[in-house]
């Protein structure tokens, strides 16, 4: 098995695209309501959110789940 990820719908989707698409769709305020984490509430930016999400697996899981729920066909 050399890196096959057929069952991973996020394969090839960068975290920056996930965050950017969610912000464009919901806006920071609504995103902070849907996922209660400070990087979306206190002076939010894509850069600071990426930094936090890369270090915090549980928060990243929530963001990726919302992305899939919002944009999956």
Task: Describe the 3D structure.
With 73 residues, the chain is mainly alpha-helical. The longest helix is centred in the middle third of the chain and has 20 residues, at 15-34. The protein has four helices and no strands. The model has no long low-confidence stretch (mean pLDDT 90). The radius of gyration is 13 Å and the shape is globular. Helix 1 (15-34) crosses helix 3 and helix 1 (15-34) packs across helix 4 (57-71). It comes from Marinomonas foliarum. InterPro entries: DNA-binding_VF530-like (IPR018668), SAP_dom_sf (IPR036361). Pfam families: VF530.
Indicate the topology.
Layout lengths: L14 H20 L3 H4 L4 H10 L1 H15 L2
Helix pairs in contact: 1-3, 1-4, 3-4
Organism: Marinomonas foliarum
Pfam family, one: VF530
Protein name: DUF2132 domain-containing protein
Percent helix range = 55-70%
Question: Which runs of at least 5 residues are low in confidence (pLDDT < 50)?
Answer: none
Oligomer: single chain
Major β-sheet profile: none
The overall pLDDT average reads 90
Count of separate DSSP helical elements: 4
Class based on secondary structure composition and strand pairing: mainly alpha
Overall form: globular
Radius of gyration: 13 Å
Number of E-state strands: 0
Order of helices and strands: HHHH
State the separation between the terminal residues, measured CA to CA. Answer: 28 Å
Give the strand content.
under 5%
Protein name: DUF2132 domain-containing protein
Organism: Marinomonas foliarum
